[in-house]
Amino acid sequence: MTGTTIRLQGCRKAFADGTVAVHDLDLTIAAGETLAVLGPSGCGKTTTLRLIAGLERPDVGQIFFGDNEVTHLPIERRNVGMVFQNYALFPNLDVAGNIVYGLKIRGLSPAERNKRCAELLELVGLHDHGKRSIHELSGGQRQRVALARALAPRPRVLLLDEPLAALDAQLRERLRGELDQLLRSLGITAVFVTHDQGEAMALGNRILVMEQGRVAQLASPREIYQQPANAFVASFVGNLNAFSVIERTTEGLKVNGGELPWNGASLPATVYCRPEHLRVMACQGHLRGRLVGQFFQGAQSRLLVDVGAAQPLLVDSTDGVIHAAGAPIALAVEPQVLFTLQS
After folding, report:
1. Residue-wise pLDDT tens digits, 67-125
2. Sign (positive/negative) of CA torsion 263, 269, 274, 275?
3. Which of these, 102, 101, 45, lies nearest to 76 by C-alpha position?
4. Residues 196-205: pLDDT tens digits?
5. Among 55, 66, 214, 307, which lies 20 to 30 A Cα-Cα from 81?
6. Euclidean distance between CA atoms 136 and 159, whole angstroms
């Protein structure tokens, strides 16, 4: 199974009530790439997926699979596989019947269908489940059946709409890893929609962050997190600490709670950092405040530290120390992790 390049050129989609779901979208997805489409409800991510699938047609613009324009082709002629949040399995068919349903419609012989079904059951780890009823399966097993069914006709493109959203947190974490390995081994071009930033970070070669029907940023997960294009991306992907700058000093920037080291030539109004970039110090630090909350999160603790700003600072600490409520907290930060943002 090999991937297909997908190109959307100037695609715009509006609905009958005048709402523009997608604004003039230019997007290229490389062959074999897994692209995560991330954003809040109503940002246009599902509409983008439906445009690629052929379930919606753009009012303006073109869509290409490889060198072939598919703008006006319906979904059944695009050779795409789809996995939905609710799996959309046939309850009256067993596992094997669901997987080969599309192959039967395409006219494959029983022998060919059985061979392909056996390959896919092995691929998704359900080799002994072919005769089971859908009602006998767990949520994770149903998700695998839905994935096997989507892959059965060897699609050019695999589209996934919130594929893990219906699962509990522990199972979602495990299947996320399995899905990542499967997509990489197949080399298929995959596009999946999610509102879960952890899922997007784990699975996407690149992440498309959408805001109100437009591209807010398109980049690798690392770049999205460490070099967000604007305040929306930075706040939507991960947690953020914002420091309002009071004045420039000889050592850096004066802010509520202390003084931040700063190597930049400009005088920003606000600088930012992630919670894991603030370190709790035994005595001296760049900032001083008081603990207003501490929450155990397994490998780390989340501290809320009041430094006299509008919001307490978020600090992710791995030192295992339990601090008393109201205890003084000293914090340090390296200048290279501080950044500014466009509005």
Report:
1. 999 999 999 899 999 998 777 899 999 999 999 998 988 889 999 999 999 999 998 88
2. positive
3. 102
4. 898 899 999 9
5. 214
6. 26
Percent helix, strand, coil in the chain (nearest 5)? 30, 30, 40
Which amino acid is residue 27, in one-letter code?
Answer: L
CATH topology of domain 241-337: OB fold (Dihydrolipoamide Acetyltransferase, E2P) (2.40.50)
Parse the chain into domains and list their residue ranges. Answer: 6-236, 241-337
**What CA dihedral angle connects 264, 269, 274 and 277, to 10 degrees?**
50
Q: pTM for this one?
A: 0.88
* CATH number of the structural domain 6-236: 3.40.50.300
Q: Which amino acid is at 327?
A: A
**Paired tokens of 115:** 């061979």
Burial class (CB in 10 A: 0-12, 13-18, 19+), 324: exposed
How far is it, in rounded angstroms, from Cα 125 to Cα 244? Answer: 52
Can you give the length of the chain in residues? 343
In our burial notation (b when 16+ CB lie closer than 10 A, e otherwise), range 27-53 reads bebeebbbbbbbbeeebbbbbbbbbbb
CB 70 within 8 A of CB 64: yes
